[in-house]
Amino acid sequence: MTTPTSREGTMKERQALSIRAKVILTCVGLALTTGFAGGLGIWAFSRVNAAFQVVATQSLPAVNHILQADREMQQAMVAERSLMFMSMATPEAKEQTKVHAVQLTQVLERWREYSAIPASEAEQKLWPALGEAVRDWVQVSRDTVRILSEETPSSRRDAIDLSMSQGAVKFENARKILSELTAMRIEQAESHAKTEEARAAAMLWWVVSAVLGAMALALVLSFVLAHAIARPLGQTVGLLRDIAEGEGDLTRRLEVRSQDELGELARWFNTFIDKLRVIVGQTRESAERATLAAQQLSTGAEQISAAAQEQAASLEETAASMEELTGTVKQNADSARQASQLAMESRDTAERGGRVVGSAVASMEEITRSSERIAEIITVIDEIAFQTNLLALNAAVEAARAGDQGRGFAVVAAEVRSLAQRSAAAAKEIKVLIHDSVQKVKAGASLVNQSGQTFQEIMASVKRVTEIIAEIAGASQEQSQGIEQVNKAIVQMDRLVQSSATQTEELSSTALALAVHAKQVRALVWRFKLAAAVPDPTPAETGQDAGLETAPASSTAARGAAARTRTGTVEARLARTSPGNGSPTRDTEDFEEF
User: What is the DSSP letter of 529?
Assistant: First the structure.
């Protein structure tokens, strides 16, 4: 009989086991029970299989060999009797002779196959008689066919007498023994089947009992294990539900009843509740401090917003100064651009004048060469007039010598001489005029060359002036670009100021939200019941928190609107004063309002 002390010791030992050990022991018990039931089933199946093998490899083959031998003996007997009524020379007789020989050979083969199968003592006692009877009948049947094949007047009668006397007796004797062996084999098979059937029924009972026992053990172990696990977990869930949805009592604890994982869970759960109680108490204090910090944060946000407004005003003044400077630089750039354009036009005009002077110099040189050629021609004419004058003088001398016959020739010679003198005088005058013209043309060519050099100097001066004006225009353009960069920087600064104002507004809103959250945290943590009695928050404190939600909202909204309005004014002014008069650049587009 189990005493209370031993029962308590067993209970403590079971409680000291871990859940893992309990589950493993349960699974091991189920595995052993299932293995026992499976082993019984396998053993029973092996016994049934062994019995089936005996029937399949001994009883059935033995009966089959006996029946086959009996059938072949019958066929050999039919072939023997058929030959008695045939002529041995016919093809049918020869065919029956072959069939007879084959059947006798198969009868002997069946006997040898049957002899190789294990047999009982009763069968072994009949083997010598069966073998002798089969061999004797085979020999008599062969002798009968041999006598028939002699085909003498008495051979057919002798063969019939031998077959009907000795052959019939030995045939019936052999078939009788075969029938006895067949009956023995069938009786053995029926007896063996009944024995194995009874054994299979007993094995089935054992297997069913083992399976039912395994199922009962599994149910008991499952119930015990589920009760051992579900009960502590249910208590833990109930306590957690009370904390989450009930009174929030943090003074309750779980009772530790075991040393397994559930007992460890209860111990750590109690430790967690202790830590949670401390955390909730500290959270109450942190919520109070968070409320005070939110108030201070809101005050700091207001100060930052005021500084942002002052900075926005300074940026507005800077934008106005940049507007005046941009107008001046733009006017200088326009004047420099116009001067550069006029200088380029003057340079083009000077270049065209230089080309005209060059053409005039070339024309004067051509005129000089033509005048010199005319002077040479006049010299030739003067020489011709001089020669003509000499010829006319010679003609006059010859006419004077001729007397009256040469008088007319003398008149002609005088006229020719007069013309030659006039031609010489005209040639001299033309030569003088041509010489004067050549001198004047040379003087004009010299003046034109000097004019060309002067135009070259003028072109060089115009080119230098153009370069200087281009440098002035480039400097003005650089100044314009620099002012544009300054405008971009001012826009960026204004964006930053606007962002700061918006962030200040967000900071103030965050401070308000922080105060609201702190109030909510206070409301949440006050619902828990702690070991130490802590007073509830007073209505005055609650009203103060409500004031935090609404007081700074209007002021922060007004400051944000003013900052956005001032920022829009500065951006519009900088857009008007931008040298490119275009849309804001990509750098300014990268800044976005919160």
Answer: B
349-396: per-residue pLDDT in tens? 777 777 777 777 777 777 777 777 777 787 888 788 788 878 777 877
Average predicted confidence (pLDDT) for the chain: 71
Token duo for residue 581? 């008069």
Domain of 502, CATH number, reads 1.10.287.950
Residue 463 pLDDT exceeds 70: yes
pLDDT over threshold 70, residue 580: no
How many angstroms separate the Cα of 398 from the Cα of each of 318, 389, 405, 415? 118, 14, 11, 15
Which range of residues forms the domain containing residue 45?
A: 18-230
Which two structure tokens, joined as six digits, stand for 406?
């040469």
Between CA 140 and CA 158 the distance in angstroms is 12
- For 211-230, how does the pLDDT look when each residue is reduced to its tens digit (9 = 90+)? 788 788 778 877 777 777 77
Q: Residues 133-144: pLDDT tens digits?
A: 777 777 887 887
Domain end: 203, 230, 257, which one? 230
Phi, psi of 249 (to 5 degrees): -80, 115
What would the mean pLDDT of 239-249 be, rounded to a whole number? 72
State residue 272's pLDDT score: 81
- Radius of gyration of the chain from Cα atoms? 74
CA distances from 454 to 50, 201, 447, 466 (A): 140, 144, 10, 18
Say how many domains are in the chain: 2
Contact 537, 287 (CB under 8 A): no
List, in order, residues 6 or more apart from 277 with CB less than 8 Å away: 250, 251, 528, 530, 531
Q: Is 17 left (phi over 0), alpha (psi -120 to 50) or beta?
A: beta
Which of these, 129, 167, 171, lies nearest to 148 by C-alpha position?
A: 167
Query: Dihedrals φ, ψ of 529, to 5°?
Result: -100, 115
CB atoms under 10 Å from CB of 141, counted, come to 26
CA 536-538-541 angle, 5° bins? 120
Question: pLDDT tens digits, residue range 319-332?
Answer: 777 777 777 777 77
User: Same domain for 302 and 190?
Assistant: no
Whether residues 209 and 301 fall in one domain: no
Q: Using the 8-state DSSP alphabet, how is residue 526 labeled?
A: T
Element (H, E) at 410: helix 407-525
Residue 64, domain member (yes or no):
yes
d(CA 299, CA 301): 5
Mapped onto helix, strand or coil, the DSSP state of residue 249 is strand
Domain boundary, last residue among 230, 248, 264 = 230
pLDDT at 540: 39
Report yes or no on 54 lying in a domain: yes
Q: Which long-range contacts (CB under 8 A, 24 or more apart) does 110-114 make?
A: 110/65, 110/66, 110/68, 110/69, 110/72, 111/65, 111/69, 113/61, 113/65, 114/62, 114/65, 114/66, 114/69
Chain Cα centroid distance, residue 423: 114
